[in-house]
Design goal:
Helix content is about 40%, strand content about 15%. By secondary structure, it is α/β, with parallel strands linked by helices. The strands form two sheets. The chain has a six-stranded mixed β-sheet with strand order 1-2-10-7-8-9, sandwiched between helices. Helix 6 (about 125-140) packs across helix 7 (about 155-165). The longest helix has 17 residues, at about 125-140.
Length: about 300
């Protein structure tokens, strides 16, 4: 879809993953990973770590396959996404952010059994994400730049691998939020860097550090990482609703914010609108012309089901 904005710095095209059954691209990788897994390994159910969208992708696929799903979620996960996990038949365990990150790195959580679907670094997950790149080139054969929100790197790596194989001259750029931009810091340093991560209403992207595997895979593919502000992100969410009646969550609007800022340059710029699962209270605040306040993590003892 073309986004028409007066005085836009580029010809902006949108890849709307908000139209997926779970309103997020995560369904692609989740289903592909589970479809590729041996059936006997799925019999005990599946486990993932997610702030919400991968959780929904895994829960949706688990429901289709008739198996249980458990999700380890960080303490700042929004209620909209937690409710969606339950609606899709999954259960969740809510833990402090640092403990959630540990489960992400270790690919397990004590007392929770099942086949682990990593939200970022499993190759079948990245391959599923890569279908977005193929679809972009089917609809727009000659994009100059594709801008991809950076969460853990699986979305960018999948899309970039597909596009670079077919059109290597297309530039792939990441986009991160100012409060959660470890890739930009790492690219500037030439090696992985940890940052002072602050949770915000943009809950689906960014972290305090890079997963080592994703740094190795993404670094040769990405031309750079553009860092946008909270105000720019909120403005992009608002513009999408007002101009084309598309509801994007904060992470889903990052690439649009970057494209509108001119950071990726001119020409034909594709912005990946990665998801649309936003709390209604957050959306109301944004549509009222305000930027939601930075979130404070819940107390360490708080847990969900």
């Amino acid at each position: 879809m073309r986004l028409h904005v007066d005085d836009a710095p580029a010809e902006i095209h949108l890849k709307l993953e908000t139209l997926q059954p779970i309103n997020s691209f995560k369904i692609r990788g989740a289903y592909n990973a589970m479809a590729a897994a041996p059936r006997d390994e799925l019999a005990r159910g599946v486990v993932t770590t997610s702030a919400g969208n991968m959780a929904q992708g895994v829960a949706w696929a688990a429901r289709e396959l008739g198996i249980p799903c458990t999700v380890i979620v960080p303490d700042h996960a929004p209620q909209t996404k937690l409710a969606a996990i339950e609606r899709l038949g999954g259960t969740y365990v809510r833990v402090p952010f640092d403990r959630w990150w540990q489960a992400l790195e270790e690919r397990r959580y004590p007392g929770v059994d099942g086949f682990f679907v990593h939200p970022v670094e499993d190759e079948p997950v990245m391959a599923g994400n890569g279908t977005i790149g193929l679809e972009i080139l089917e609809d727009l054969p000659d994009p100059d730049v594709v801008v991809v929100p950076w969460g853990g790197g699986g979305l960018l790596t999948g899309i970039a691998s597909a596009i670079k194989a077919l059109r290597p001259e297309t530039e792939i750029r990441a986009v991160e939020l100012e409060t959660a931009a470890p890739l930009a810091a790492s690219l500037a340093a030439g090696e992985p860097r940890e940052i002072d991560y602050r949770p915000t209403f943009v809950d689906g992207a960014g972290a305090r550090a890079l997963l080592p595997k994703m740094w190795r895979l993404a670094r040769p593919l990405v031309a750079g990482s553009d860092v946008v502000t909270l105000d720019e992100t909120a403005a992009a969410v608002r513009l999408l609703v007002e101009r084309i009646r598309v509801v994007a969550e904060g992470a889903g609007a990052l690439a649009v914010a970057s494209a509108l800022s001119g950071r990726p340059g001119g020409g034909k710029v594709v912005a990946i609108v990665s998801g649309g699962n936003i709390d209604s209270s957050v959306l109301r605040t944004i549509l009222a012309g305000k930027t939601p306040l930075t979130k404070e993590p819940r107390v360490r003892g708080d847990s969900g089901r």
